[in-house]
Amino acid sequence: MKKILCLLLAAVFAAAIFAGCTGKSGGSDTEPAGTASKTDGESADEQTKDSSSQTDPQLSAEFENLKATDKFTFGTWNQDESSGGEPITWIVLRQDVGKMLVLSEKILEYMCFKNGTDENKYPRALYKDSDLRSFLNGDFYNIAFTDTEKAMILTSKITTMYKDESYNELTYETEDKVFALSKDESARYVSGIGTIIYGIPTQRVDNENPYATSSISGVSGVEKAMPWWLRDMGTDSNKYAAYVTARTTHKYNDDEKVYEYAGVRPAMWIVYNEKDMNGYAKGEIQPKADAELDAKIAALKIGDKLQFGVYDDNLYSVDGFNSLTWTVYNEDDASFYILSDTIAGSGYSVFDDNRDAEDTSWAESYLRKYINSTAFLDMTFSPQEKAKLVLTHIVSSGEDDRNGGAETDDLLFVPDASDVDNYPELFKNSIGHKYWLRSQRSFAPYIAYVSGGSVSSSRPTENYGIRLMARIIKKG
Fold first, then answer.
1. DSSP 349
2. Taking a C-beta distance cutoff of 8 angstroms, is the pair 141, 109 a contact?
3. In angstroms, how far is the first alpha carbon of the chain from the final one?
4. Helical H runs in 320-471?
5. How confident is the model over 249-279, as pLDDT tens digits?
């Protein structure tokens, strides 16, 4: 990647990248407002549509039949150095109810994350203040799409990871029409699916940046590629931004300084059936049935294994999500009770993030909020899988004078210490990680966890794995 300051190249590429690297960002390098420890994602899927414009019926019909990995054209952008724009090809990453998440097939621009002129004073990698975000929601959005097309692009409340001055990992939210993918999104939807993760430049971007591309051999359909930006802050420094490398489908790097260059692959949510989208969000309609999933669940019995949902087993790479395997451990007339065999979620999580709390319980925990958030559920399950989850009434155990806290109703939960006693065969192996239970221990605020098959106690602010439990509908 170029090791040249954005300021020096701005004049050369100004016409090509429009608003990129101008320093005209929408805020300052102060701490983002409304931050929360880790990624709670409660509002990550809140989306609104401009109701003053009508959706194109023909486009809506075409989009409803698309599925993940399908390609289509939508909008135009200068891709071959002609005077006009050429149709932009998009890849469907997730087909939801009445809407879909899409990513540009090719790198459409090449620009810095945020302008910086002094290597010792370059700005922090806050996407909310970046030139990348300004470009995507400014010149790109305004030039690439007609009014009819703009009416189909949702305003999405997205969650972005950053680190404070003490390197605590936090999140903030922004409202965007067009955005760069996050680390989780790139791992969940892009990698592991053919050649989608490769950043293939358009002819114009390639011609204007001949030293930025890497030759790719042995990959059908990919001759050259370049790195492309993600929106999260890097792991090693709060002045570095995450990006996907050019030469691999198995890894992202996060050590690129914000004033250096990488490719731009816009992402956005397109709505094609507003009535269905809103009805699903309100719980008034269900997604189209998945006959294969229905048959698979109906045939289960206690002790069977079920692949249901996905998880990221390597937080530090974009090698794709793996199928989440569960064991059926109990049943009633209408549902199966299932326990994940593997650690779910992106790496580890705290049980509760309030370091000043004198006590905590499952009912009030960060962990409960996190795994039942829209962001986590949508990252883990398809709409059809989500529809199979049913609320379970949860009673958490305590120890000595601690009673386990308030009872709850949850779609997802973690095991109780009593489950370890009742189903010892499911817990006798460590499965490679320590993982949380939801039970309180004798001394506040200690919470139970499993290590090597045995129950231990820990402060709730430690980071352990998440082994999920759920209840799913047998039929219908």
1. E
2. no
3. 52
4. 366-371, 374-380, 383-388, 417-422, 424-427
5. 444 555 567 778 899 999 999 999 999 999 9
Bridge partner list, 464 = 349
Is residue 194 exposed (0-12), middle (13-18) or buried (19+ Cβ within 10 Å)? middle
- Mean pLDDT over 202-227 rounds to 87
Structure-block tokens of residue 322: 């793996």
Q: How far is Cα 202 from Cα 144, in angstroms, rounded to an integer?
A: 15
Residue 452 DSSP class:
T
Task: Render 298-318 in DSSP notation, one character per residue.
Answer: HT--TT-EEEEEEE-S-TT--
CA distance 133 to 174: 10
Q: What's the whole-model pTM score?
A: 0.75
- Dihedral, 113, 348, 342, 389 alpha carbons, nearest 10: -80
Sign of the CA dihedral running 362, 364, 366, 369:
positive
Average pLDDT over residues 24-46: 36
Environment class of 316 (CB within 10 Å of its CB; exposed 0-12, middle 13-18, buried 19+): middle
Alpha carbon distance 89, 77 (integer Å): 10
Query: DSSP class of residue 153?
Result: B
Stretch 44-64: mean pLDDT: 68
Cis ω before 445 (30° cut-off from 0):
yes
In this structure, of 207-221, 367-381, 412-426, the range with the lowest mean pLDDT score is 207-221
Q: With contact defined as beta carbons under 8 Å apart, do 411 and 390 qualify?
A: yes
Residue whose structure tokens are 């932009």: 88
Q: pLDDT (tens digit, 9 = 90+) per residue, 112-133? A: 888 765 555 556 778 998 999 9
Neighbours of 193 (CB within 10 A): 14
Summarize the chain as % helix, strand, coil (round to 5).
Answer: 20, 30, 50
Token pair belonging to 214: 């890497």
DSSP line for 15-66: HHHTTTTSS--SS-SSPPTT-EES---TTTT-EE--TTSPPPHHHHHHHHT-
Q: Reduced to 3 states, what is the DSSP secondary structure of residue 290?
A: coil
| 4-22: burial string, b at 16+ Cβ within 10 Å, e else | ebbbebbeebeebbbbbbb
| Full DSSP string of 102-146 | EEESSB-EEEESS--S-TTSPPP--GGG-HHHHHIIIIIHHHH--
